[in-house]
C-alpha cells in the first residue's frame, strides 16, 4: 500500500546478476537527490542463478512501511528466463510498466506476460554491457532503463550524481567509470517502450 | 548530517564513532556485516580498538566479559544461534555487572534453520539480566546503540545492554539516516571510568567467583534493583540524546493513542508498517492507535497500562512463539501490566512474522477489523492465535 507520492519498484533477477546492487545504487542516488528511499533485497538461501527479488521505495516523505512490495509501479526483469517461472507482473499497477532485459521487442514480449495490458519496455542490457564493459553485467543498463521509463529521477541529474557515486565507489579503479557511464547513457537511448 | 545507510552500516558506524577498547568478533548472518565493516575501520586505523577474532560466540562474549572486567569498554554483535551460544555468558556478564554493549540483529532460532527475522533469539534471553532496546528502523538502531553505553555504565545500573534491530528488514535495508558528528558522539558517550576493575592496583579484585547461598540471593536482588533503576536512567539518557540530536525517545512510543479505542502493542520494524495502517484507518474514522515497545527489559509495565487505559480492545503482536500454550512473551508482559487497571480492555495475542514471514499493512488492518468486532460485540473469541501461516486448505 503506497501513497500517490511514492514510487515502488520491484526487481527480479538471478543471484549474481547484480539486481540487489542496482537496487541499492538507485536508493543511494535518489537519497543524494533529497528523496526518501528504501532499497532492500529479499533474502533466502543465496546461490548463484537462483531467482532473487529486491525492492525500492522512493518518496518525498519518509516511508514507515517495512513490508515487501506487492503492488509495484514498476517491475524490472534482469533475466528474461524468469518470465517462465516467476509471476513478475503480479500486482503491477495498471498505469505502471515492466522493463525486461531482452533482445526482443515489446511486441514480442507481451504474449509472455500473463495478459499484462500495460506498458512493456525492453532493453538489450546484455549487448550494451558486453559492448561498453566487456562482460555481461546487465544491472547497470537496467538501472538506467528504469530511471528513464519511470521518470522517478530526472535523467540528466541522475547521470551527474551517479558519476559522483561511481568516483567514490570505484576510487581504486577509476578506469571502469567511463564504461559504466557509457552503458547508462546508451541504455537510456535504446530502451524501447511499447 | 544526512546520509543513507543500512542498519548494519549504521551500527558499525556508531561503533566507529564510539571507538571502544575491545570488540569480540565472530560472524553470523545477518549481523556479519557489523564485524566486517568494523574490521575495515580497524585495518584503516580509524579506531584503535583491540579487535579479537575468536572461534565462537561463546568465546566472543567471554572476551567481552574478561576485557570489560579488566576495565575496558567492549562491544560485540550477533544473531540467532550466535546469541544462543552466548547464553551461559549473558548471565555471567549481567551478574558481574559488566556494561557490555551487544548489537543483536534479530533472527529466528533453529530449528528448522532459518536466517530471517523474528525475536525468538533475544526473547529467549529476556530473563538474562540484560537491558533490551528494540529499533524500528536504521535511525533507531544507530541512536539506540549510541545511548546504550551511557545507560549501562551508570554506576547505579551497571548492566549490559542488548541493542536489537530486525534482521534483513532493518539490517540490510538502505534508508535515509541522520548521523551525529563524531566529536558530539564522543562527548555524549564520555570516558569510561569504572569504579572497580581487575587491573586497578589500589583495589585488586576477583570477578565471577563462586557465590555461596549466604550471598547469592543478595547479589540477585541487587541486580533486580539495578534493572528497576535502569528505567529512569534510560529516560534521562534519552533526554540528553534529544538535546544533541533533536530526536525524542521514551520507554515506549505511543502513536495516535490520544483518543484511541483500538490499539496494538508491537515491537520493531512492523510498528512502522502498522503506523501506516493506523493512518489509513484514522482516515476512515476508526479510532486506532498503537504502542511500540522500545525497551523490553526493563519492561515499562506501568507506562504501558497508562497508555492502554482508555482503550476497549487491544491486540498484542508477538514476533516470537513462546510455546507456553498461553500466548507469546509480549502478551504475558502486557496482560500482567494491565491487571491493576480498574477497567481493562479486551486483550488478544497474535503471533506473526516467524522466520521472516512478511507482514503487510493489509494484515494489520485485518487485526484492527478483529478488534472492531470484539469492541462492538464484547465477544473476544480465541485469545491466542497465529497470523500469516497457510492453512491446510491453502495447501490442498
Q: Any overview of this molecule?
A:
The complex is a heterodimer of chains A (194) and B (396). Chain A is α/β, with parallel strands linked by helices and 194 residues long. Chain A has a single domain, classed as Pyruvate-ferredoxin Oxidoreductase, domain 3. Helix content of chain A is 36%, strand content 21%. Chain A contains six helices and seven strands; from the N terminus they run E-H-E-E-E-E-H-E-H-H-H-H-E. Chain A has a seven-stranded mixed β-sheet. Chain A is globular. The two termini of chain A are 27 Å apart. The relative contact order of chain A is 0.17. By secondary structure, chain B is an alpha/beta fold. Chain B has two domains: 244 residues, Rossmann fold (3-Layer(aba) Sandwich); 144 residues, Rossmann fold, CATH 3.40.50. Chain B is 42% helix and 18% strand. Chain B is built from 13 helices and 15 strands. Chain B has a seven-stranded mixed β-sheet, with helices on both faces. A six-stranded mixed β-sheet of chain B has the order 9-11-10-13-14-15, sandwiched between helices. Chain B has a two-stranded antiparallel sheet with strand order 1-8. In chain B, helix 1 runs parallel beside helix 2 and helix 1 runs parallel beside helix 6. The longest helix of chain B is centred in the middle third of the chain and has 33 residues. Chain B is globular. The interface between A and B is medium-sized, with 22 and 30 residues. Strand 2 of chain A pairs antiparallel with strand 8 of chain B.
Give the secondary structure arrangement, pairings included.
The complex is a heterodimer of chains A (194) and B (396).
Chain A: E1 6-14, H1 19-32, E2 36-42, E3 51-59, E4 74-77, E5 97-101, H2 106-109, E6 119-123, H3 125-133, H4 139-150, H5 155-169, H6 175-190, E7 192-193
Parallel strand pairs in A: 1-4, 4-5, 5-6
Antiparallel strand pairs in A: 1-3, 2-3, 6-7
Helix pairs in contact in A: 1-4, 1-5, 3-4, 3-6, 4-6, 5-6
Chain B: E1 2-5, H1 7-18, E2 22-25, H2 33-43, E3 50-53, H3 57-69, E4 74-78, H4 80-95, E5 101-106, H5 120-124, E6 131-134, H6 138-152, E7 161-166, E8 174-178, H7 182-189, H8 213-245, E9 252-255, E10 262-266, H9 269-283, E11 288-293, E12 295-297, H10 301-308, E13 313-318, H11 329-338, E14 346-351, H12 361-377, E15 384-386, H13 392-395
Helix pairs in contact in B: 1-2, 1-6, 3-4, 6-8, 9-12, 10-11
